[in-house]
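As a warm-up, study this chain.
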Amino acid sequence: MPRPNGNTALKAARVAAGYATQQALADALNSAGPRLGLGDLDVSIRQVRRWESEKPPWPQAHYQRALRHVLGNMTMAELGFSPSWGSVPAPEDVPRGMLLGIGAIGPAQLPLPSGSGGFQPESVAADYALVTGSHRRLYWTVQPTQMHPTVIEHTRLGTALMSETTGPARIALARALAESALMAGRIEFFDLRDPVAAADTYVRALQAAAEADDTLLGSAILAHTAFVPGWAGDRPTAQERMRAARAYARRGRPSAEFLAWLDAVEAECETRCGHPRTALTLIRHAEEVLAEGGEFASPEWMDWFGPVRLASFKGNTQLKAGQFDRARETLLRVLAELPADAGKQRAVILGDLAAAAVGEQRVEEACEWAGKALGQLSVTWYATGMDRVRDVRQSLQPWNELPCVAALDDAMFGWRATVSALQR
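Now compare it with the structure written out below.
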């Protein structure tokens, strides 16, 4: 609600703390940043003026911490702030590296209510996180069309609870909410092939991670946002987002697996943008990082990567580099080592093996691998896996008259497969 006299609560707190001018408060906040481990905050007098305006924007987590420290550990409500979750933060409220054109909050976003909160028990965050963890495990086997609405509704619940919690419970809730929104974005991008919806959902995930001040989770979300321009061939934007993801990772305690995964994500983007040689260099670095190991463990929510997944990235990159024999060797090893519940990844690997066979003009073998991929997709649907099969079929155009290619068409366009694809 607009305040005709501006944010008088913040003005009063500033003067009471001994900062007679807005510039004095800005200087104090900037000086506090390094002492609090927040780095260079770069707060301007214009920023302070906006906080003391009729419609003060909700400060980001690192600004909140500095404000509380400088102004005597007052709560944000006592400083005159109310969260306005329904809008994207203004540029001055966003840390450097987050203004990456990720997207704007649109109709698909989950409106988060405002309020001073604080009337949920502390156990609510742990209970919410428990369900988030269950969704994490269910993701690998449950159909995405069934999983997505459930995760979205869980995220809606988390956003509503944000206005009803304070203190450590609010931070823990924000962290679980960020993970849940990240999962929703992953389903939208990889399983349902809706990059526009995914880009919006990733913004919401990043906002929640900022509220929790979880830089490693923020890094993971930013890396996922790089897939969107990377798969669209927008190399500069993908590279910028990966630089941001690496910057956030440096602020946390990344494991060797996490750092190797960042290499793998960048390699995937480079491959999609037509630079497989650069991608192979990144893959080699990732292998070295994994072999060397590290002192930190991977976070519990990072269940999508390991040596086998890195090898699958490598096989696809070798394939795009025209190294068909090496790709086949790598992908066969991955296929043998995939766990039983990795149905989605298995469909991708089978599709890549089909593509490698096409590259070597082994047409019957390509059709056989593509048929196996379709069989896996009938059990565990994965849009990314289906994209692989479609690409293989397109590359088989010169051999349309062969019986094995006709049989592949029959498998792709049978009643069950066609109706299922249209439903999805």
